[in-house]
């Protein structure tokens, strides 16, 4: 019988940490013009990416990111044991159709904007558990597809409050492997759905901050580590106000991470880009992790990070029926070598 | 390093087969009146189940099934390492809100009507891989929520073709454990998204049959077993016509399973119930597996089965944009002891 790797804790650790052997990113023009624009593999200026709908454009981005990640790993799709993927569209159709095109056994995920890290955590478990040699993880989002599905017709140009975030247009993919060169995943903390009663779908940062703080604090307790063990705590898409809220909640839990806490949504746009509170969407944590963060880790400027992607678990229907918004956050430790 | 449990094949086998220590089911009145009505734990006559929307009724069913499964396992929610759950509603809101209420670390899944088996397969991997002692798997669907989300306003009473299936109202849950009493999961075969070009969303059986046949044939090849190794091959919700199609495709692949092949969707309603081609929905494979099949296995009338839940990977949006419908099928071997 294999030894338990968690012993009743919420955090698992990997006996043979799976390796992130390749990543790939692709983003839209707004993301390309942002402070991290130079860290992405490709910037697509055309919002339709040559397709006739935004949904097909998003799908094309996801497929291209996945194909690039596979190619960079010197693999073929048939070498990959599992594709773990998801997106924000109803029934995760971006992931569904790319899964069809690639022909890799497909495990569909839905964790809202936390999906990239849900996939990294699960993929690492499947590899360290002995069930896979290679796992492909991928996510996508698109401002125009998300806006019209979750909010208003995109063309309507409805005014957005300053605490709203902007859905990142892009896709990210990573290949995890049992062996190889690259940063490793040493731990994963799967989060609980936390709901403190916030019900405004424009203010997702506030809805997700309690989940982010819960997962980060649980991770530190489980591993008996202090915040200074990590060079960086980085959440997915809390945005400016959500990040502040998470910081306060962490202080209440006895952890001061103020000197080492950032958020992918805060980093991806500059204040001049009028994205209000920052970026969001599955691709936000996806492209920042697979682009900027991987490059910083490989260059040795970051040695150990706790990445914590956050998701708001709502639908148009749940909002219309008066429900509040549970948040969720999944954390993964990524270490350079 | 743990030994690989698949060696490049699509099927994994479990060194210490995880045990299904408890299950629970709850269904609506139509399902209660069907041939398997006596095998379900509870039949709810009120389509709203005391709530003010169908979506909340579905959620209440899912929560109750999960709570019952936990209780029957003599556990508390805090003993469960992971909740693996999903449903058909946009952004899987049934699972999201039950995850919030139960407070168990939550891995959201989307595999359309294959989700129960996606969860059983993944849950078994997490346990056998050493990452969990107990995993809770659950799914739900509801005729009225699915009908109005995917097709027409429920009140409209649009005529349905005879090859259409009827979404099962109900919820199912199972607790998997490293040790204990009950049937075991010995193998899992995660399927690929297969699309032979069927584009009629009323004919999901035809869209899913190729995926079912692909996964079943792959499982037999990987395990080097002949069909007579199993007492029963049972698909999730192919319905009458989809089952026939899958049977033919299996014959083309060189496997005759005609004497031992059934479908949960065919079993759950009688022809007199006017459900046309049979049942469908996440709960179809869910309640038939967690109710009828578990009882047959525990009674020794079935010793070894290959359960193969099937999913149609479409959304209203993908259909409206002219896409065909990829199918997917995940298989799990359940053996009595």
Can you lay out the helices and strands and say which pair or pack?
Two copies of one chain form a homodimer.
Chain A: E1 11-13, E2 19-28, H1 29-32, E3 43-44, H2 54-72, E4 82-87, H3 93-102, E5 106-108, H4 115-128, E6 134-141, H5 143-150, E7 166-167, E8 170-177, E9 184-189, H6 204-223, E10 232-235, H7 239-252, E11 261-263, H8 264-268, E12 279-280, H9 282-298, E13 304-312, H10 316-320, E14 327-335
Parallel strand pairs in A: 2-3, 4-5, 4-6, 7-12, 10-11, 10-13
Antiparallel strand pairs in A: 1-9, 2-8, 6-8, 9-14, 13-14
Helix pairs in contact in A: 2-3, 6-7
GO molecular function, one term (chains A, B): acyltransferase activity
Protein name (chains A, B): Stage V sporulation protein AD
Pfam families (chains A, B): SpoVAD
- Report the strand count of chain A: 14
Q: Indicate the low-confidence ranges of chain A by residue numbers.
A: none
The amount of beta strand of chain A, in percent, is: 15-25%
- Largest sheet of chain A, if any? 6 strands, mixed
- What is the assigned CATH homologous superfamily of the largest domain in chain A? Stage V sporulation protein AD
Widest β-sheet, arrangement of strands of chain A: 1-9-14-13-10-11
Pfam families (chains A, B): SpoVAD (PF07451)
InterPro entries (chains A, B): SpoVAD (IPR010894), SpoVAD_sf (IPR038369), Thiolase-like (IPR016039)
Protein name (chains A, B): Stage V sporulation protein AD
Organism (chains A, B): Desulfofundulus salinus
């Amino acid at each position: 019988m294999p030894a338990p790797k968690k012993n009743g804790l919420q955090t698992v650790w990997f006996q043979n940490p799976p390796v992130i052997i390749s990543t790939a990113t692709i983003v839209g023009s707004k993301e390309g013009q942002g402070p991290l624009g130079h860290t992405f593999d490709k910037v697509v200026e055309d919002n339709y990416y040559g397709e006739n709908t935004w949904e097909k454009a998003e799908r094309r981005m996801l497929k291209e990111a996945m194909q690039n990640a596979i190619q960079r790993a010197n693999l073929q799709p048939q070498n990959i044991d599992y594709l773990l993927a998801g997106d924000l569209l109803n029934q995760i159709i971006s992931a569904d159709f790319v899964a069809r095109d690639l022909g890799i056994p497909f495990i569909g995920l839905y964790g809202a904007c936390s999906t990239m890290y849900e996939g990294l955590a699960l993929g690492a478990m499947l590899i360290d558990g002995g069930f896979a040699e290679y796992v492909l993880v991928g996510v996508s989002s698109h401002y125009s597809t998300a806006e019209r599905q979750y909010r208003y017709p995109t063309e309507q140009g409805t005014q957005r409050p300053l605490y709203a975030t902007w859905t990142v247009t892009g896709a990210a993919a990573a290949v995890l492997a049992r062996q190889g060169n690259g940063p490793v995943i040493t731990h994963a903390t799967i989060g609980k759905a936390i709901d403190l009663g916030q019900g405004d779908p424009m203010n997702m940062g506030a809805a997700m901050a309690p989940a982010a703080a819960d997962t980060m604090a649980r991770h530190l307790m489980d591993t008996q580590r202090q915040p200074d063990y990590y060079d960086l705590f980085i959440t997915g898409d809390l945005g400016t106000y959500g990040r502040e809220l998470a910081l306060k909640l962490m202080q209440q839990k006895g952890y001061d991470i103020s000197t080492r806490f950032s958020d992918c949504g805060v980093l991806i746009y500059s204040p001049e880009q009028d994205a209000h509170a920052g970026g969001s969407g599955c691709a936000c944590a996806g492209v920042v992790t697979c682009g900027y963060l991987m490059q910083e880790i490989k260059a040795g400027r970051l040695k150990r990070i706790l990445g914590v992607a956050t998701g708001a678990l709502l639908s148009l229907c749940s909002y219309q029926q008066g429900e509040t918004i549970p948040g969720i956050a999944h954390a993964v430790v990524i270490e350079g070598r």
